[in-house]
Amino acid sequence: MKLYIISNRLPVKAANTDGTFVFSRSEGGVATGLDSLQTSYEKHWIGWPGLCVNKDEDKQEITEKLQDMNFHPVFLSEMHIQNYYEGYSNSTIWPLCHYFYVYTLYKNSFWQSYQQVNRLFCDEICRIIRPGDKVWIQDYQLMLLPGMLRKVYPDLCIGYFHHIPFPDYELFRILPEGAEILKGLLGADFISFHTHDYMRHFVGTVERVLHVEFKLDEVQMGNRVVRVDALPMGVNYELYHNAALKPEVQQAIENTRKLFGNHKLILSVDRLDYSKGILHRLYGFSTFLEHHPEYHGKVTLAMIIVPSRDQVGSYADLKAKIDEEIGSINGRYSTINWTPVCYFYHGFSLEELTAMYFVADVALVTPLRDGMNLVAKEYIATKRDNPGVLILSEMAGAAVELTDAIQINPNDIEQIEKAICQALEMPVAEQENRLQRMQSILSKQTVNKWAADFVCGLNGTYQKNEELRKKRLVAATIAQIKQKYDQAKQRLILLDYDGTLAAFTSRPEDAKPTPELLALLQHLANDSANHVVINSGRDQLTLEQWLGALPISMAAEHGAFYKETGVWHNNIRKIDWGTGIMSILQLFVSKTPRSHWEMKETALVWHYRESDTWLGTLRAQQLVNALLSICTRQKLQIMQGNKVVEIKSPEYNKGSEINRLLSGKSYDFVMAMGDDVTDDDMFQALPKNAITIKIGSVSEAANYNLLFQKDVLPFLQSLINKQESASARGANKNYLVSAFNFLNDLLKPAKNKKQ
Prior knowledge:
The chain is an alpha/beta fold. The strands form five sheets. The chain has a nine-stranded mixed sheet.
């Protein structure tokens, strides 16, 4: 079995040297962490090799050379790089996720190319994947890929990690293709982010855009769950912490000290990007020099900027402004013996960079928005028996862990100035204490642990989905249930109404039974072996009005009232609600647009199905909190159902109604169907050999799961279909067609699943 790591780029640097292709390993954080991942799976990597080639023989040569490293190339054209990578990925998604809305570009050609490239990746994966393999997709360039793979392989184990910030709903909703991107991401089993803030933004956005509801960290998507988590990425701690022991790094440290002399060294390392706050940092340093002449000739800012997309307009403009500001600072303050800002517009080798980390007295890491920022962690890890201070933007994901850094708002120039002063004047003992506390965290939360934690979370979610899949009602299971049904002499059939026999409507009073439902219930009841019971939370009057003409039993308001042999029975005592609870309900109706409350004889119910998903969920929890003390005093039960909060007596529920039914008669076939948490009481009260079916989301209390409410009637019809007369077959033609379509749909995943 294999683990396929999917990313925009393969972890190699490619070069065409004298007509032959040469590859060298990249030292990126993700590549380092995944290389060291301990797993029984054979690791493979799929991605773009970094070169655009058109000749088939070149593609063949690259593919063969990469296969030796378990790498599989996806070949992209120059147009793909322009529209998919530079376009949609980095000119649409990147600025939006980093809260630079004004830089966001929308072009249809960008979006089309993004879809095409995600499809190319999907095709390559499908070409080589085998049953039992796992897929781990990396980052924002491939957000459609999980959904694409899920359509081809419904049972594939898919993980996704988002390495950049995930924006708040109010910003994400600007994206025209936002719903499609979210659906693509939800094709994964397990989705993870660097921080809980990004995770929270994602959950809130999914709920409000797609109108699905998370239960803590999970959301039901069809017959599976998708789990989300926050897993902060670390660094290879030992690599950086032990770097100063290497002879080549020691030489680089000596060279660095000679270069900067006795000056206090402030280090800044960034890729050229507007999200990094480079100009703000320069403005802060300039203000520091202006207000603190005593540091002139004593402090140097070493600014390393790695070139990145400097041919793009916004990046070229940024570089020009950076060059201008550095020139202004140096022109104003430099002397023959001192240059305030030493500017390096190129990348450093690992040895040179770790030497700079080791020597630097202060690291100035102040991005305006950053998913994690590993520079801050690398600086802390490299410090070995020598002091140093980290100034860190609170907008960086690393700020969640590195609380002993001097944290600042990177938009505040005065804060940057004050932080520099605080860092330069901090006592050595305090520096060492802060470093030790941060190193203690980083030495545990390494990149190796990050990778292992992700794979563990992915495996756990996938195993849960495997268990849930076993509960699916498939054709073979239905055939077994039908065999038991046909052989039984006495059957008890328990059916919930809303969400089971009838689809939910925005207004509960609109969920009247259809002629097809009435005919099916009549057909079930005509069999003398069947005792059909509608076990509902609906009130007695509504059930009688809608279903009273049928020869069936009914339980209203979760068993508070029940009807047998045509007669309704009262099973409860009258409840005096008082004005307190009702005034609270009225208050929440006024605070929650499109919500309303309903008074039953035995319950008060607050409905919020039509309300905004996020607001409704918030108000529901607030309502429960507001009702808790008063309901405890009055010995009332608070139940949260499907977009409802219900206050009722604990003396009766759907389970108590089951106990009453089973106490009077024996059955050799018992089947219950329901969609709500209240139906779990019914499932749990039934004997173990009963057939219990949860509609929609999967329940641990039910044996089986039927995904869609629309399949309930066809399923029931499939149980009662028999060889009948021509007239009976004609009368039931519609049922037979729908039952056939239902069973045919159940077989589709198996037909479509590739081996």
